[in-house]
Amino acid sequence: MAISAPRINYRNAHAPNTSYQLGDIVDWNGERRICASAHTSVADPNVINSYFIHTGILGLTERGVWAASTANAVGDVVTASYARWYCEEFAHVDSVVQ
Questions:
Q1: For the chain, which residues make up each domain, given as ranges?
Q2: pTM of the predicted model, to two decimals?
Q3: Which helix (H) or strand (E) covers residue 51, if one does?
Q4: 31 CB-near residues (< 8 Å, 6+ apart)
Q5: d(CA 43, CA 9)
Q6: What is the CA radius of gyration of the chain?
Q7: Could you list the mean pLDDT of each consecutive 10-residue stretch along the chain, which spans 98 residues?
Q8: Strand 76-80 to strand 92-93: parallel, antiparallel, or no bridges (unpaired)?
Q9: In angstroms, what CA-CA distances link 66 with 27, 48, 84, 92?
Q10: Which of 52, 59, 55, 53 is nearest to 73 (CA)?
Q11: What is the CATH number of domain 7-93?
């Protein structure tokens, strides 16, 4: 059974005047955050907080580079095929990158 999961795009440090899309992850103020709404960023921390959610709140766990035969749980995030992926439906053991 093929499972479709949204891509997560790691964008490094947050930068003002940058276009961000839903699922983009940035590092900001010592925390990793995920974009909850597409927007062009500004430097105001109050605006940043309204567009990005702390990944820990969502229960996301960084697992590094994807590897076959690795067990993943809901909320695990891996890097594969130049993108970031997260497990959103059920725990499983990786077999093939789609």
A1: 7-93
A2: 0.54
A3: helix 45-51
A4: 54
A5: 21
A6: 14
A7: 59 91 85 84 76 68 80 78 69 68
A8: unpaired
A9: 21, 30, 9, 13
A10: 59
A11: 2.10.10.20
